[in-house]
Amino acid sequence: MKTENQRAWFFVLPVLLLVAFNALIPIMTVVNYSVQETFGNNVFFWQGLDWFEQILRSDRFHAALGRQFMFTGLILAIEIPLGIIVALSMPRKGFWVPVCLVTMALPMLIPWNVVGSMWNIFTLPKIGLLGYFMNDVLGVNYDMTQQPISAWVTIIIMDVWHWTSLVVLLSYAGLVSIPDAYYQAAKIDGASPWKVFRYIQLPKMKTVLTIAVLLRFMDSFNIYTEPFVLTGGGPGNSTTLLSIDLVKIALGQFDLGPAAAMSLIYFAITLLVSWLFYTLMTKDDAQ
């Protein structure tokens, strides 16, 4: 009877303990603030669950949460299919393989605040190249600083440019792992390109696509730096996502109690939706 050697866990145990310790203290601090009120000088007053009730009944929270879900939904609807299409179009052998892979990886190497600054300068209506091209060359009335639709289109395009590469690289990794024997059998059977994709490529990419969907959901649902640098949540509150609103409450208004409660609700929603995504995408594997 074959037995498994569990001694390898001793090598990763220090890392697990360190990560758990670093995560536990901030979470416990947030939990502490979420049930108390303070006016400074490290003096706290018990508040109970009042902050949670206040947040859940707040129209401001519901509006920001709706904008966050809309942003994440658009991102997933665009980046997942686009990433698969680009990965299918990339070469499998030859000189252009490393060129394509490096090119795909370049946007992800740029820091988030730099991405927001780049697109801010690029899209400004007076000095930005895209702003000048849209307004003066094409004659389209485009101003992300004044028009909510323009602001939304800009942050969506920015995120697609920045993070579609992640889906491409994961999808490409799934495609190159498919043995040639599958394609040879499909060719002998006279399968069309759509059937090859439907019955060979897509099932083999299921694991990496599950990872891609989870990573892109969690990242886009918690995005802050890029849209904040690009639009600051404006014009008005049109692009004030839940993360931006949370920072405004915590640092702008210094309402630590409501901000802590809101962050825990935010965290719970992220975990719940991630679990639903994972369950739905892997339910066939459990059968």
Task: Describe the 3D structure.
It is built from 13 helices and 2 strands. The chain is an all-alpha fold and 287 residues long. The chain has one domain (59-282): MetI-like fold. The longest helix has 31 residues, at 59-89.
Structural class: mainly alpha
Q: Give the CATH topology.
A: MetI-like fold
Beta fraction: under 5%
Order of helices and strands: HEEHHHHHHHHHHHH
Query: Strand sequence of the main sheet, in spatial order?
Result: 1-2
How far apart the termini lie comes to 27 Å
Q: Please summarize the sheet with the most strands.
A: 2 strands, antiparallel
**Spans with pLDDT under 50 lasting ≥5 residues?**
none
Q: Any idea what the radius of gyration is?
A: 23 Å
CATH C-level class: Mainly Alpha
Give the overall shape. Answer: globular
Write a brief caption for the model.
The protein has 287 residues and is mainly alpha-helical.
Key traits:
two-stranded antiparallel ribbon; 287 residues; 13 helices; MetI-like fold
Please specify the SSE layout and strand pairing.
Elements: H1 9-34, E1 36-38, E2 44-46, H2 50-56, H3 59-89, H4 96-105, H5 112-123, H6 129-137, H7 148-176, H8 180-188, H9 193-204, H10 206-221, H11 225-231, H12 242-252, H13 256-282
Antiparallel strand pairs: 1-2
